[in-house]
Fold this sequence. Notes:
Elements: E1 3-7, E2 12-17, E3 22-26, H1 40-62, E4 66-78, E5 86-98, H2 102-116, H3 118-125, E6 129-138
Parallel strand pairs: 5-6
Antiparallel strand pairs: 1-2, 2-3, 4-5
Helix pairs in contact: 1-2
Amino acid sequence: MKAKVIWGGDVKFTAETESGHQIVMDGPPDHGGTNQGARPMEMVLCGMGGCSSFDVVHILKKSRQDVTGCVAEIDAQRADDVPAVFTSIHIHFVVTGRDLKENLVSNAVKLSAEKYCSASIMLTRGGVEITHSYEIHSA
């Protein structure tokens, strides 16, 4: 996997992915940014949320569950000192579908966290405490 990050002046950068997508990142105004893109650490959270959500939906579909929606709400805490690494992350899944079985949703979240989500497992191995919860809504 490859990516390229190109400086666009001030503290704005554009990431180009190997799959051909561009993502704009910018720093906060108090660091010279103009709020033209997400902060790099926000992108880390979004990547982890996307990775986990992909797993949960994929596992549920393989379990023949009629999933119609999945939202990952992520709340993270960072260290006060530099480097301001993540110290804890909580990801709450709101899974919507028809006749979803709770044990299968619970299992999908657990499998993502413990076996499949490369991003969250990498962060956990780096010392970040990651917790998970879920709720099920009927479609």
